[in-house]
Every structure is written in C-alpha cells, then in structure tokens.
C-alpha cells in the first residue's frame, strides 16, 4: 500500500483511466451497465463523506450526456469524470476498499482531483438541471 497518496498520485491515477473512459464513452450500453454497477457499489460504502458525495451528480452528468440531453460540456470533462468513476469502481486500486477506515481514501483523493478539474462544468450542469426540472 502506498503511504503517500497525494494530489500528484491521485492525478496520475485519474489520467491512467482516460483511455478506458474514452472506450466506455463509445459504448453507451456498456457505460450504462458500468454506471449501474457503480451506483450499486455506492450503496455499500458506509459513509460517502463530502469527498465522495459528488459522485451522484457526476453519474447524472454522464447519463444526461450519453442520452444527448445535456451536451454543453467539454468532452475532456466527461472523460475525466468517467475515469474517476472507473477508479472508484475498480477493485484493484492503490488502497483496497476493504481496509476499514482507509480503504476509500485513495478513491476520495482521485474524486477530489477530478472535482478540481471539472467543478465549473459540473456547477453549470447543476444550473441546467435546475432550469429544466431535472432531478437525480
């Protein structure tokens, strides 16, 4: 287990998933199955905490993007979000999720780095949702 999982490590892990994220984005059905698996996993995490609490809105953005309901977002944002989601769902991440107390720290770090990169686009998406009566 890596002892020093910092922002640099989190960004490196996020970028590792970009290729797989692009592949998933090209297969809408597989992406939807992936999002469903992720939502199922989120229900098993004891406490999401504020670092992982942004995951449902990220999932919602990706869903609306692939349904072509919301496309006013850079493709790089969508890829970064999918990459972060891949990391969270992956059973083989830096700190195994099963380790009590620390298992989700690396997931939270990757999501936090992603959030820093995409926050303004996600905030714009949230405004769009409000204006269009969309709910998660």
TrEMBL record:
Residues 78-112 form the DUF1232 domain. InterPro entries: DUF1232. Keywords: Membrane, Transmembrane, Transmembrane helix. It is a multi-pass membrane protein. The chain crosses the membrane at residues 73-92. Its main location: membrane. It is found in: Endomembrane system. Pfam families: DUF1232 (PF06803). This is DUF1232 domain-containing protein. The lineage of its organism: Bacteria, Bacillati, Bacillota, Erysipelotrichia, Erysipelotrichales.
